[in-house]
Amino acid sequence: MNAHEQEEDRIRQVLQQSLRPVGAEHEPNRDLWPAMLRRLDAKPASTPWFDWALLAGLVAVAALFPSAIPVLLYYL
Fold this sequence. Notes:
The protein is mostly helical. The chain is built from 4 helices and no strands. The model has no long low-confidence stretch (mean pLDDT 85).
């Protein structure tokens, strides 16, 4: 066994110790989907102020520079 094979074996052992096995027997203790649905229903999504500011800026650019409309549409 040369040094390269020893290094590979050492790396393999370290990875096996640090990573959990993946498979059917290693599933979460409970179903996560109902909790996700409750979280989504708990608070309706609100639009942040900077989204409105960005929209106002785009409208202002389109009003001031109508020739920029095709450029803006291209980047959408």
